[in-house]
Amino acid sequence: MIIEKAEVIVTSPDRNFVTLKLTTDEGHTGLGDATLNGRELAVATYLSEHIVPLLVGSDASRIEDTWQFLYRSSYWRRGPVTMASIAAVDMALWDIKGKAAGMPLYQLLGGASRRGLTAYGHASGKELPELFDSVREHLDEGYRAIRIQSGVPGLKAIYGIASQSADTFGGEARYDHEPARRGEKPVEEDWDTRAYLKHLPGVFEAVRNEFGPDIPLLHDGHHRMTPIQAAKLGKSLEPYDLFWLEDCTPAENQEALKLVRQHTTTPLAIGEIFNTVWDFKDLIRDQLIDYVRGAVTHMGGVTPLKKTMDYAALYQVKSGFHGPTDISPVGMAAQMHVGLAIHNFGMQEYMRHGAKTDEVFRQSFTWTDGLLHPGDQPGLGVELDQDEAGKYPYERAYLPYNRLADGTVHDW
Ligand code: EZ4
Ligand code: CO
Predict the structure, then answer these.
(1) Catalytic positions
(2) What are the pocket residues of ligand 1 if the criterion is a CB atom closer than 6 Å to any ligand atom?
């Protein structure tokens, strides 16, 4: 089974996506997601200039060998651009193997370990009434677990709040399609950690009072705190029984989490910007985290993600794969198959893609009673409509960034 053609497709229906499509001499096609939010063309170029020439003529059945070759032979290993590119190849080869075998990917990974994947959605609001409405909407849509992000008095815009996009940026009232906002320059937002730490526990108290003790609630700190601030937040949220607190400190300094752990039993999730098992190794071994936030697209594909989760299983660490809309429907499908197959699944993040994205990517997953299932089509279960994709050329987009009141750049 020889790879005859490798195409890199950049399309921007609701946002930018980078997709690799491989075609074999036997006529099978495979898709892989290489989307890197706000840096899409860097990955598209890495693929077309450095990887595509290596793939054409090679054996599509050798998934492990191809991964090792692309990782080790490049010498300059790791990093988001390289690993998103390798991820796309790996996903596309698994897609092809599934189609050749006539089986959905999860069957090739050992079969289903559960009926479906519990998934959480993103409720948000600048003020409590709006946040409560958003929680109710998510419950009505079938979500059984909910991430809570709230505005902070005195701050104009803040990560994760849907309605501010409509007010501030004149767009649709969902931030999720465009966290990397189309435009020539990134949008500047403001930030104040003390105001946030003072405000957030009251928000969770209000949500628990309104919606009761049972529903799993999550929160994303988006790398904004120092270790001692994160420890303080984790401790102050303990009465509200979070399912996890995500990215409480910047991910680079892994020792920071030791200090956080000493002070709080709030479960910790980290790693949406991690690229390899090496980024997770010490955190898992030292039991400093509870959930692996890696995404199949940014961790080098299905092959290394499955290995990372098998390693995490030794320490009772579970999955919490990153699932914003910047993971394309192809990447989402791939990590749904992994989540269905592994024993140590925890929770899947699920943001709906926009209507135009769903036209470009024909998907076969289901969403029933709060559970995602990747479906039973052979391979990943996603097809790309290239005519539709061609209608939406790339548009420049940047993630926003933060400045403190005195003008200092802060983690966004
Ligand atoms: O800001 O994926 O948990 N989810 C997140 C995301 C990230 C975007 C950045 O590209 O933190 O919304
Ligand atoms: Co996050």
Answers:
(1) 159, 222
(2) 37, 179, 220, 222, 272, 324, 326, 399
